[in-house]
Amino acid sequence: MSRIGKKEIVVPENVQVEVEGQKIKVSGPKGTLTKVFPNQIKLSLKDNLFTLSKAEESILARQRYGLSRSLLANMIHGVANGFERDLEIKGVGYRSQVDGKNLVLNVGYSHPIVIEPPKDVSFSVEKNTLVKVTGIDKEVVGLMASKIRSTRPPEPYKGKGVHYKGEQIRRKAGKAGK
């Protein structure tokens, strides 16, 4: 049985939740998220506490039980506090900047790479090498961070490239000189 699915979700006071069958709309100070949950999951809201239960005993219901609870908790946390992901850029001449809403990366190619943010996601840059991706949807924030990282993944010899803040890059020794 899922230990994650059994946990109750506390809804903060500044977050409004509307349940219409399997469709949930979560509104808060940062924005609004909507999601339709599968029919195998029953949702109940009572006194600012969300509880999920399985509507049927099947393998599919067990698979979606903990996942649905995590998705709902992330929606509530996102509209209340938001999510952010930090990236670092290392390398000689590698830098980034924000042009309007777009992120412009100069990471060793002959041309700058322009990344347009989706709705409810914003970029900020500090010291030309620290990029912060913020938004209310955890999935979209992580997807944009991985898209930025994939423009120039860190290489193992000098550690140049774009990597997550705090990520350990496995280094290789390189050539053994004579």
Task: Give a short summary of the structure.
With 178 residues, the protein is an alpha+beta fold. The chain has three helices and 13 strands, in the order H-E-E-E-E-E-E-H-E-E-E-E-E-E-H-E. 23% of the residues are buried.
Describe this structure in words.
With 178 residues, the chain is α+β, with helices and mostly antiparallel strands. It has two domains: 3-80, Outer Surface Protein A, domain 3 (Alpha-Beta Complex), CATH 3.90.930; 83-164, Ribosomal protein L6 (Outer Surface Protein A, domain 3, Alpha-Beta Complex), CATH 3.90.930. The chain has helices at 3-6, 59-80, 138-151, and strands at 9-10, 16-20, 23-27, 32-36, 41-46, 49-54, 83-90, 95-99, 102-106, 113-115, 121-126, 130-135, 161-164. The strands form four sheets. It has a four-stranded antiparallel sheet, covered by helices on one side. It has a three-stranded antiparallel sheet with strand order 1-6-5. A hairpin with a 4-residue loop joins strand 3 (23-27) and strand 4. The longest helix has 22 residues, at 59-80. It is elongated. The mean pLDDT is 86.
